[in-house]
Amino acid sequence: MKIPVQRLYLKRRVGISVVALFAGAAFLAEFATAQSPVTKPSASEIAARARAVMPRPMRVGIPGDPTGTPPTGWTCVGNCGTDTADGVVTLSPHASTKYEWVSTNGGTTGVGALPTGALGGETDGSTLATPIFSATAGTALNFYFNYVTSDGAGYADYAWAELFNSSNTPVALLFTARTESSGSIVPGAGLPAPLATLTPSSVPIIGGAPTWGPLGGYSGTCFASGCGYTGWVNSNYIISTAGNYYLKVGVVNWSDPYYDSGLAVDGVTVGGVPITPPSSVPAVNTWGLVLLGVALLLFGMKAAVRGAAA
After folding, report:
1. How would CATH label the architecture of 64-274?
2. Average pLDDT of each block of 10 consecutive residues along the chain (310 residues)?
3. What CA–CA distance (Å, rounded) separates 292 from 191?
4. Domain extents for the chain?
5. pTM for this structure?
6. How far apart are CA 81 and CA 67, in angstroms?
7. Within 10 Å of residue 125's Cβ, how many Cβ atoms?
């Protein structure tokens, strides 16, 4: 029996449409899964985790910085400091001998939320800001960061960096990093898009229980999938308008204050020049200056006496 050409064409089109429909549905489901933000845990889930978590001590005895003191001229709110190569955090490609860090361990309640685009549900954290610096239009702001977290699953902590002007107004969000069980965690899920160029641009978590001093008692622990560290990532941003600025970085716990996270930062330069370059001028002893002044005075008096005698 002969089937009209029109029916064959129609049948073929229907078959293609059905295949496309199923393929499209599968794509949309996958896209929705990839783009869906982390759902905030319920109050009962948070309470259950609180009962299960043992109290953890704050950071102690970090190599190179037992006091947790930030660099001179930098401003810390919460818990910040400097560190040398420590656990999963090596020295950065900037070739410094140490780096700066912020941590939610020992952080302050109400601190660390993203200044532009906070999620709600942030609990406690820390921020660290550079001294104010001047920049001309077209100047590059460059630095490295390494996000480290012991938290995972539905308790998605995050870290960020933002450029402010000297009037404390946010100018540009430079990066975000947020806990996820798979895929790139930079930029962070549900957070605004950063403006800096990141290298690498896609950063999956290096999974496992990260060992790192600034995590305090949570160093070496892991809550579900998603904990780990990013490794060093470079951020480069071109400042478009001349002015005075400062860089601020932060890290915050989300939904509850357990299983801490931190951010290592290094090599902050403006136009290739460190914001706070190490001083090459040796310290001057006050008594040495006094003795030098007395010696010069006596030498002058003796010279005057010789002149008068002549």
Report:
1. Sandwich (2.60)
2. 42 41 37 49 74 56 54 92 95 94 95 93 96 97 97 89 97 94 88 94 92 94 92 97 98 93 97 69 38 50 55
3. 61
4. 1-33, 64-274
5. 0.74
6. 8
7. 32
